[in-house]
Specification:
single chain; about 600 residues; alpha+beta; eleven-stranded mixed beta sheet; eight-stranded mixed beta sheet; binds guanosine-5'-triphosphate; binds manganese (II) ion
Amino acid sequence: MTSATIPGLEPGSAPTRHQELLEWVAEVARLTQPDQVVWSDGSDEEWTRLTDELLAAGTITKLDEEKQPNSFAANSDPADVARVESRTFICSKREIDAGPTNNWVDPTEMRATMTELYTGSMRGRTMYVIPFCMGPLGADDPKLGVEITDSAYVVLSMRIMTRVGPAVLETLGTDKFFVKALHSLGAPLQPGDTDVPWPCNTEKYITHFPEDREIWSYGSGYGGNALLGKKCYSLRIASAMAHDEGWLAEHMLILKLISPEEKAYYIAAAFPSACGKTNLAMIQPTIPGWRAETLGDDIAWMRFGDDGRLYAVNPEFGFFGVAPGTNWSSNPNAMETLKQGNTMYTNVAVTDDKDVWWEGLEGSHDHLIDWQGKDWTPESDGPAAHPNSRYCVPMSQCPIMAPEWDDPQGVPISAILFGGRRKTTVPLVTEARDWQHGVFMGATVGSEQTAAAEGTVGAIRRDPMAMLPFLGYNVGDYLQHWIELGKSADESKLPKVFYVNWFRRGADKRFLWPGFGENSRVLKWIVERIEGTAGGVETPVGIVATPEALDLDGLDVDIDDVAEALAVNVDEWREEIPSIEEWFSFVGDKLPTGIADEFAALKQRLA
Ligand code: GTP
Ligand code: MN
Ligand code: MN
């Protein structure tokens, strides 16, 4: 089939006159040879058409209209359930620019390999073109992109996660820059083939060309690998843009905390995947008089404003949250958001009356259809929902969205939190002495591995600023960028930096701190540190809260547990040193002197 005969490619049929975009679409169509090209408009009509198609294909199940209005549950291929870090590549021109933490292949070689894979890869399928915008369309410099995909599931999910529709094409005009994001499932159909419910390929590539600001993804239909506006654009490509342009693209939630005096504080927090960002973003404070509102649960773009403060914007439009563990007590605001409907679930369990269920959700069921589409009873071997099962839901449905969540100006950040999942060593909350010390804390974030990516669950890995899987360039340059941004700013206007750990455990393995809504007590201490009204103790690792300085009113916990959660155990920290040493030598020559200085000072304080 020549390009002229691919329906949807006829001259003048596209809803844009952006020449570069038109040429790229034609070029990809010629390469991938789809049955037709369809421009996505993000309309309700499109939603209905595509969900009908996926229902017929067995990819999704329609959920009960009363309990889960306009919502669907998809089951992925059992081998396509998480981001694939071992198949994620940063193909910068020079290997050193990808750095030691990323897989690198020469871009020319990678383009050749993937061009071969893309050849005919959309045969028998529809090629969708999705113009999208990360962040508000009304921004001075809106961050535009176009994803080409042969997955209807991706089209539906992109409508939830990003700003799509005719307004994006309008903003693109005839010549605005956009990030080219190409995605193919790698599952062409020959005439007469019957399709599978979740097409994908055992061979997977999630590739980024940072200098060209391009993304090529092949072989996976799963969220982070396939919804290219999210991790691929808003973190990996955007981090490279941010490095060049003097801003930050971070794996952070954005939260607004309102004191009883009605004073608002904006907080950004970076925790590795499945370590509590979405939970904290939607926190329901347990302290009387304190309220929280959310602005984002996964990604923050931050730049200095004219007033010298650091402003954050959430580039996303929806939540792509971890389902297991989400319930009416751990995260009531997420539950309320889901109750509004319009949700695409992936790899959750479905009840006999077509509601959803996952481990940790209220209610128990004698029978379910599990995430693999099989019958499940409480006696069954595995979990009913996959540990990395997700909900994809419009952010606007969250009952505690801050009114300013869509403001292109963003919000001024007063505190940055780093954290990870650590059973031992790391106190509940520690304040950095200054910006550089805070960057050191971020640089040494360590976390036990979760199910959000492939790998051994439980092993500790260093995850700088929770960005390890999402850095679009060399980690040493990235840490230097953080240090330099701090130096360029007015110190008194910089956010204060804190390190939190909700996950410390006692000798009997139980969590020492109740977490979730009770984390508001830690947030209150942080606010009081910003205001200079709360006490803390100087320790070798920073300023740590004391049990007395935390508001524990009405909290039903053993005070000894709180003390243990806050303890700085010098012996444990000494044990930490070789692993930091190992991590920094892995970072290599580009480790900033400022970070090396902080490490030397820490070792001295622990000696
Ligand atoms: P990504 O969306 O993958 O980037 O992850 P996330 O950081 O948003 O993770 P999420 O908020 O979904 O956290 C998921 C896991 O952390 C669940 O198992 C929660 O139960 C657990 N969790 C969140 N907050 C707390 C807490 O305060 N204490 C404890 N013990 N567990 C928590
Ligand atoms: Mn994330
Ligand atoms: Mn999340």
